[in-house]
Amino acid sequence: MSTKDKYQGVLSLGEKLGIKDGNVHEENGILKIKGEAKTPYEKNLLWDKIKEIGGENASDIKANITVADDSVFHRHIVQKGESLSKIAKHYYGDPMKYKQIFSANTDILKNPDMIHPDQVLVIPKI
What CATH number is associated with residue 100? Predict the structure, then answer.
């Protein structure tokens, strides 16, 4: 199995996330990946996938993933049935951090209990 085949899950995730300026090549058994994620959250998703496949200190892959928008952690499109606490649990692991998401979106939200599908919420760095 080639290194590229081994890390196909990372490459597929990069395509799904729409990583820009992607460049992937194999050199002396080392897979070299370069690209630009939209947000730090998406960059973290890629690194998590790399660690899932190759372990914490993989020696057969080198990745240079930059971020286009470092001003926020992520931009989330609200789906039917979501709440701020559910979104906070997804991104931060703590539903009580919904207050930070609400505070970052007071320009479009007036009440933390009223969000609507298709709204784009800023998920702030905390």
Answer: 3.10.350.10
Token readout for 58 is 């993989």
Distance CA 41, CA 13 (A): 13
The two three-digit tokens of residue 93, written as one number: 């692991």
Dihedral angle, C-alpha 10, 86, 91, 111, nearest 10 °: 130
Domain count, the chain: 2
According to DSSP, residue 72 is labeled S
CATH number, domain with residue 43: 3.30.460.10
Tell me the whole-structure pTM to 2 decimals.
0.86
β-pairing, 30-37 vs 61-67, is parallel
Look at phi and psi of residue 118 and say left if phi exceeds 0, alpha if psi is from -120 to 50, else beta: left
Boundaries of domain holding 93 = 74-123
CA distance 48 to 109: 31
Residue ranges of the chain whose pLDDT lies below 70: none
